[in-house]
Amino acid sequence: MSALSNMIWRDVRQSYASGGTWLPVIFYLSAATLFPFAVGPDRELLLETGGGILWIAALLATLLPLDRLVQPDLDNGLHDQLIVRGITDELIAFGRLISHWLAFGPPLLFAAFLASGLMGLEGPPLVTLLVSLAIATPALAGLAVMIAALTSGLKGAGALGGLLLVPLAIPLLIFGAGSLSDQSGSALLFLGAVSLLLVAVTPFAAGAALKAARE
Predict the structure, then answer these.
(1) What pLDDT is recorded for position 40?
(2) Where, by residue number, does the polypeptide cross the bilayer (predicted)?
(3) Which domain holds residue 126?
């Protein structure tokens, strides 16, 4: 277990030090900055559509780190070393989910807080946006790890990853963006259920893909 915890913190440190953490943040803020220029200064329109745009940007930002989540450790033999030490593929995948969320989730929430000002979101809508993204970022991290494992070793993995992400992330987008206009809070409950399901499935799906990649 110490080897797994070392891997988690090594991944987090490398992500922050190499700038891999900040690329999704820069992309997210860039998308949020461009949207008001595209639709004009209509405040009501920005309030109505801005939350959905920020959610779409979050999904697209998930694609950016796919190539560094799994493949480097398969290439340099670290994954095999962990297996030799008795750590299962499923546990390695779960560790990847944790490390990726620590490097991806908090910075994305900070970027969403900054970007919401460009959309005119404030008060309860802003709180709902941040809560919905906080609920969904573990699932987004899980999807990224799952897709990275499934596409490891394949040519054009980035493009294939995008094709896999879109259908899997649609429930998150529906309930996440829908929570901004839902006064009852039921959308957040469904979002939480979907997020928990994806987090629970990720270690097994990604672990099976990692096992197949080794064989």
Answers:
(1) 72
(2) 21-39, 45-66, 101-121, 127-150, 157-175, 187-210
(3) 3-214
